[in-house]
Amino acid sequence: MILWTFRHTKPYNPKDVCYGRLDFDVSPTFPEESRQAIEDYLKTGAKPTRLFSSPLLRCLRLAEAVSEATGLAIDKKDALMEINFGTWEGQKLTAVPRAEMAGWMQDLRGFKFPQGESFYDVDRRVEAFLDSLPDDGEFLWVTHAGVIAALQHFACGLPDEKFVEGEFSYTMVNRFEFTRNAEGHYRGRFIKIHDGIQMPPLPL
What we know:
Layout: E1 2-7, H1 30-42, E2 50-53, H2 57-70, E3 74-76, H3 98-106, H4 119-131, E4 138-143, H5 145-155, E5 169-170, E6 173-180, E7 186-194, E8 197-198
Parallel strand pairs: 1-4, 2-3, 2-4
Antiparallel strand pairs: 1-6, 5-8, 6-7
Helix pairs in contact: 1-2, 4-5
């Protein structure tokens, strides 16, 4: 199975707050960001038959542009939403209680954000959706850093110590190639096709 992933473009976040499920629109740089990513993607000769997108606006804007370029209809999937940061949503990281921040620093992927998810929770929901797709298909997802990182971790063997969730660029495009293991789960490898605008570093 072949899977192509687009990360959304830079969101409009002028207050620089923590966001996962917050439904931010795109930044003014959207036209250039999306055009360059789609152009590089089309050069690969990819032939997906279905286009899935997170329902959050910053992904849907890009999915609409991808749909126009490919002729594929958009199928919105909650499984492709970003991690739920719970009580951290909408806060500056400097305003997060120090004990909670310390807990996250000690276990970046396993820490469960208060009233939200852990990155392991994202792994589980993404794996369940991935495993539901047919073996002989080729698909395209427009989604978030947490979802793409989940694929790299649970399906491609990236160790938890490599916290790529905080390193991805906006509009990054990847190609994954998967086969099922003995337990019926997809496992494989990936390559980066396009790099976009780099995020500011997280305070790790």
